[in-house]
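Shapes recur. One chain:

:::
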Amino acid sequence: MRIAVFGAGSLGGFLGARLAHAGEEVAFIARGDTLRTIREHGLRVESPQGDFVAHPALATDLPAQAGVADAVVVGVKAWQVPEAAQAIRPLVGEHTAVLPVQNGVEAPFQLAAVLGKEHVLGGAITVVVQTVAPGHVQHVTPGADLSLGELDNRRSQRVERLRDAFLRARINAVIPADIQAALWAKLLYIAAMSGLGAVTRAPLGAWRAIPETRAMAQEAMQEVFAVASARGILLSEGVVREMMAVADRFPAESTTSMYRDIAAGRPSELDFINGSVVRLGAEAGVPTPVNAFIYHSLLPQERMARGMRVAGV
């Protein structure tokens, strides 16, 4: 497949490198030091599955140079999706599938508003990857689990082809019966993982071992479950238990990208994780006190990281 990866940071870089290493025709749309490193040396991946260097078919900062792709993996941060939607237009042809892999549940609809809903898939991935240096990413977890599908849940050849490409790339890709439920299950998980990590400034192993903060994580998940239910999204009754079990399997030193961004004073996906739970909960008339506490506690730092004026600072 001809696959364009828009954004070669930690997640986009990891997925694109895996696909390229498996023999897919991959074009990275990147910029700055990351682009220069990929062009000169390839993209380096450290992984429990084996280290390697991937050499894509093309690395460019001009989407038009890459041309129309069979699929576009959107690997930018959640707040960058509206801008990315405009920029990837040259990559999208009549049959192109666009796969967002950001945290949150809003990216597919932001992309569909610009590109047309017929081009956009839903995607949710569970993995820990982080950037070591431009063009160098570290895969922390033993594997990577990806759910992808048409937004209306119909079976399609393009989704099956893309799933098979990811499977060849050693990404555990599945097509769930309900992609919206998969997106919300990921939000339920990441709201707790990112939120508790960021607000406590502690890795997963620390806060999950303390009864009080573990209970907060479970309460944050229950709130997402309630918001999803109010919006007509059917999650399994045991999803909170299942997601806590997933958290218990992660290495104790694991942190999320939102935790790392906030700890470093960088802009984060806070508005699209805990913030979206609060916002979508208010729209549905569902109270979300734990997510609101996390969101409001981190909001001053988030605004300062974005260069927004905060009174008194």
Remarks:
- The domain at 2-177 is CATH 3.40.50.720 (Rossmann fold).
- The radius of gyration is 19 Å.
